[in-house]
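Shall we go through a protein fold together, starting from nothing but its sequence? Label the sequence line and the structure token line clearly, so we can match residues to local backbone shapes. Would you write everything just below, so we can both look at the same thing?
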Amino acid sequence: NIRSMARILLTKKSRRTRTFQEITGTNEHTEVLEANGSVLSILDWVKHAKLDSSQRRAFEVFTATFILTFHNDFDMSDTLNMDPTQTEAIKKEGEKLRLLSDVDSRGKQLICLLHGPGGSGKTTVVDLFIMYCREFSDYIPNFIFTPRTIVITAMSGVAATLLMGETTHKALHLNTKRNLNPEDIELWTETRMVIIDEISFASADDFKNMNNKLCVLKQKIYHRYGDLHIIFSGDFRQLEPCGREGKKAVYYENCPQFKNWTNCFIELTGMHRFKLDMYWGFLLKRFRSGEVTQDDIDFINKRLVRNGKVVTDGTYIPEDLKYATYFNRDRDAINTALFEKRCQEIYSLTGHQPNDTIMILADELEVKNGDKTYRPFRNNQLFWENCGEDDCKPPRNRGRVDPVLKLFKGCLVMLTVNKCVLQGEANGTQAEVIKVRLKHGVIPKTVLLNETIPVAAVKASEVEELVLKHLNDRIQPSEFTVKTSKYTFNAKIP
């Protein structure tokens, strides 16, 4: 209530020692004002978190808007019996917050596009914003800040894991055909704001669906997005969204829910990801804005690689280089070649098969025949030796199937389906292989790569689970497991 808010403003004025390590990347201690909901504290957090000017403006608008949701809950008649000092403090602070969040220009509801390329600091702004709001909420009696207070989502699973959120489709029930039930609606009772990342992946239909679902979830049918504050975050200058055939980027379509309703635009201009190589950062920035020069093209072509060497100076490429390929079949071929090279080097050096390496062979294969029944496939070896990952297509391209999964301790893998987004296990999640647990009593066989290199191998049905570790150290617990599964897919078998 208003008394509590006034009390927080007038009493929570001390400075606390913190590091902002997640924001600044350093363990430097600093003294910062408590998150008491004042404009002064917001500006102090900006200063000590070392945000750039565009990040600063985004943090100011978002944080002031969130705090004003509590001011808007006030019954001003309660001020009649309040101490005049408290009444004056809360009224003045409300005016300052409205000025900071630019309410008079945009209106009471915030519908913002936070725009900028990768590395400009969008995630950093959201992290600091959530940190402030959580601390501020802790001071409010009988109020608990939960993941439903500010619902954090992303249009892709892997982006959601970076924000410690969930997919927009799941959170907002975008794929739900049934009518939303009271239990669905109750979860949104205390929600004050929604963040939707990777918004460039959304089509006009997605925006319409988001609006319709939020109106129902907040039980405000005739309000835009259910009268919730909305932050769309992303980059419309990246590749256009993939998905179903005919899906277009929203800027090609008539979409008032986005084009007409957005009342706040903030462009982040920082280049934090390139602080150790600003020349490369500015070059990529010119590519993004369509201002690439011939000098930029010539610079990139100086690093042309052929047969593992840089053409211009003959230097070898690093062993841990990451490859970007246009086709999945090229990625599959490169990974296989690197795996074989590693096994060959270990075998040549030690005379023994690698003890940290294993191949997992897809088994229990069945083929659908003419009468649409499944029969056992009798030539597994033909499948293993002649088919790669790109030759196996699950229905609607959901997930991937590798006939022979080639692993070693410490190798990098990627999840291909949304397993549990809230725990960081999403399509596109990168992880490191820690171990492969086999079922009780299973002893790996030895197979020969290229008829010369011995490697341990097991069938998929003999594997209990894979133990993996997230590359993103923000996700805790860092280790998780993946069990074998049955898949239906179309395969190109010679």
Observations:
- Residues 2-272 form a domain with the Rossmann fold fold (CATH 3.40.50.300).
- The mean pLDDT is 92.
